[in-house]
Design a protein that fits this description.
homopentamer; about 160 residues; alpha/beta; 4 helices; about 20% strand; globular
């Protein structure tokens, strides 16, 4: 039985955890899901680390939301490096889902990006639990989360 | 009884610690508060780490103030990464409050941002002490500190 | 017998691992190759570390693909720092191959860059396995991967 | 008796260590001062760490000088992160003084910035040696080093 | 007898190691020099760490070459942070020499920058081997590598 951690934020404008929980329940009905909600993206790394080390999660998915300013981008960079560091300190995957407010000026589209990205990365999480070659048949195939796949370039 | 650390700076132009102390005293009257004041944001990470490791704090809130230049932004990035690293080395939350001078050209508004952000993050600190699901009912709700909440997007 | 790890992504639009596998098989027919496919570049560092620590790889090559936006560049920076950190934590080389979508607006040229870069870095990997002076006769010679060599400047 | 480390550089155009030594001798006549001079800012972090770990310093002040180009700014960022990391690895303060050549186009003013900043941060160092609440009466007071204090905002 | 490590790259367009070897042989004829050549700057940090930990080097000099694009600058930043981290993990100096292609549009001048910088930093390396105060008489003197010294500002 897998233990799967979800970290999300109160800053986010879409409840992406709901989508992730749905996908996990449909695909891994026996998995135990542990949720941890923090204020914003800079609080995510330690929550992910605690889910792995204190709650015994096998893998974590983090659901961040990033504002439009340059300061927000620097926060994104710091947070991204923190999430990578959590993985290197635990040897566990932490799938880092982020939605950036500058990805679309249309709020409806932003919602669709968030939902699609969370759903597809939930599937990536499930694949990674099965081992490092599970996604290999899709390697180089131009898959995208939040947008339709762009596909491979012609070689 | 919780031990709560506050790190603030002499560079800041608003005494945000006063707000944080008020909120903690009103909500957690038995908590012990330990304050540590440093010159500027790059001095914050080690002070937060010392509060956790040498003073036994359960959680820390840091109150930074960031100037307007690009150099200040790089200092913000270095400091943010340091604060994330403190959390990963201690498995404790450090709520990182920062006010950026470029957030408003109006000094009165900047004061209001600082006070509102410090107060709301003091509440976030109290919530996180109660566990990782305390804030989950607000997940994806578009909460903001320093400004009014923007709320969730319609899905 | 060497164990060589390959990390690639489903985000990439060219199957660079195929090129790398060809070059290794031609030059080190007894090497064992272990492949690990992840969604995107921020997932690469932990996969590389797992290949070294859990699968016993002597060296790893990572095959990343980077989008055009500033956010993608920050992800590149975080990923690059992660890959360097993996090397410092394991004292093994991880050859970090990345193709950036802004390197060419012509898709055919981008494919050629990807193939050439993957192939030449596979050769660099093989050279580094033989020791730190193997590449010394090419030091300062202006070698390029993805493009033709520019050669040394006249001194 | 305190041991205080000073790291400075040959790149700097002002001998800031002289100012720092004066202030320490006037205020802590029994302190032992150990100086370590390196070429430039990227050499500073390890020198600070050696002063703490190999020479037993209780605290260190570093005196950096940063050029005008974007490359210099990235070196500043890397150096800042290194100095923060030294502090997290040793739980000692390292007061990071830097003068940026783009702070003034007037060389005389740049000299005044350097001298004022070094002097005021020497006082900050002395205060931090006395404990984390020594500077608390100045918290939020808008103190500046290199320039006159701007003072607190009206609340 | 000192052991001195040199890391250089095949990406570089000038054989800077030759200059460094000359200077070391002239000034420290008994030193043992160990060379390690890697493809590019992101491969430098682990090579420097291996020279210190596996080959027993007392100090290392790294000779990097950085392209003109923004991506190259991010690679420079990641590499710089890696080289600083190597120093903090080993408490040894790693003198980080880099030539940036945007330092001059004239190829002859770029060669002169590379040669001058490598030569002067070889002298810095020799000085640092003698202890942390060897360079103190030059502190604040505005020394430059790659260009003529600018000298101290008038105080």
């Amino acid at each position: 039985m897998y233990k799967i951690g979800i970290v999300d934020t109160t800053f986010s404008r879409v409840d992406m955890a709901k989508i992730v929980v749905e996908e996990i329940k449909n695909n891994l009905p026996n998995a135990r899901i542990i949720r941890y909600t923090v204020p914003g993206i800079k609080d995510i790394p330690v929550a992910a680390k605690k889910l792995i080390e204190e709650y015994g999660c096998d893998i974590v998915i983090t659901l961040g939301w990033v504002g439009k300013t340059q300061t927000d981008k620097y926060s994104y960079l710091a947070s991204s490096m923190g999430i990578i560091l959590v993985q290197l300190l635990t040897n566990k995957h932490v799938i880092d889902v982020t939605v950036h407010e500058d990805e679309s000026s249309d709020e409806k589209e932003l919602v669709q990006i968030a939902i699609d990205r969370a759903r597809k990365h939930a599937h990536n999480l499930i694949a990674l639990l099965k081992g490092g070659e599970t996604l290999s048949r899709w390697a180089g195939k131009g898959r995208r989360q939040g947008r339709p796949d762009v596909g491979p370039l012609e070689t």
